[in-house]
Amino acid sequence: MTFPKKHLNDGETVALDMHPHWWYFAEPAFSLLVTIVVGIWVIRLDDGTMKDILRPVVLVVLAGTAVWLLYRAATWQTTEFVITSQRVIFRQGLVAKRGMEIPLDRVNNVNFTQGVLERMLGAGDLLIESGGEDGQQRFTDIKDPAGVQNLLHREVEKVRTRRTAASGPSAATLSVPEQLERLEGLLQRGSITPEEFESQKRKLLDLD
Predict the structure, then answer these.
(1) Cα-atom radius of gyration of the chain, to the nearest Å?
(2) What digits encode the pLDDT tens for the residues 31-54?
(3) What HEC string does 119-135 produce?
(4) 147-157: per-residue pLDDT in tens?
(5) 117: nearest Cα among 200, 3, 15, 21
(6) Where are the alpha helices (DSSP H) in 14-47?
(7) pTM
(8) Where in the chain is the domain with CATH 2.30.29.30?
(9) CATH class (in words) of the domain with range 5-20+79-155
(10) Full DSSP string of 141-190
C-alpha cells in the first residue's frame, strides 16, 4: 500500500515509502516456532498424565502466539515510513492510530544503529534529531538504514538549496544568464529536479 497522494502538499513528491523490515516479525514468529516444537514434544510423551496436563497449556500458548503473529502482521501493514520532498512522515495503528511529521528544514542530524545480526539482515534503527519540540525520534526496523540516512541527507540538502536559490540575497544580484548557469549547476548536481529547473527558468525568462 502506497502513501495516498491526496495527503501530499502541492508540489510535494514521495522519495521513499516503506513498511518495516521483515525482522519486525522475528519475536512472534520465533515464539510460535518454539511453541510448535514443544507441542510436538508433548504429543510424543510416554507419560499420559503429564501429556494431559501439558496439552491444554501448549494449546493456549500456541493460540496466543498465533494471534500475536497475526496482530503483528496487521500492524506491519498499517505502519508507514515516508520521506517526501518536504517532510518525514510516520504513521502506525490498526485500530487506534498515531502519526508524526518532521519538516525537512528542521532536520539537524540523522544517525543509524545496527547490531551484528541486523547488519547481516539489512535492518536497523534510525535516529532523527530535529529542531522541533520532540527533539529526537527513533524509528525501528528500518530497511537499509544507511541508505535511508543518505537519502534523507540528500532531500534535506535539496530543501536548503532550493530555499537559498529562491530567496538568497546573492541570487538577486546576479544577471539572468548567471542565474540560469547557477540553476543548471544545481540540476547537474541533483539538488533540484528537472521540473523545478524548468519552473525557475520560466520565471527568470518571464515565460509564465
Answers:
(1) 25
(2) 999 999 988 888 887 777 777 888
(3) HHHCEEEEEEEECCCCC
(4) 999 999 999 88
(5) 21
(6) 26-43
(7) 0.68
(8) 5-20+79-155
(9) mainly beta
(10) EEESHHHHHHHHHHHHHHHHHHHHHHH-HHHHTS-HHHHHHHHHHHHHHT
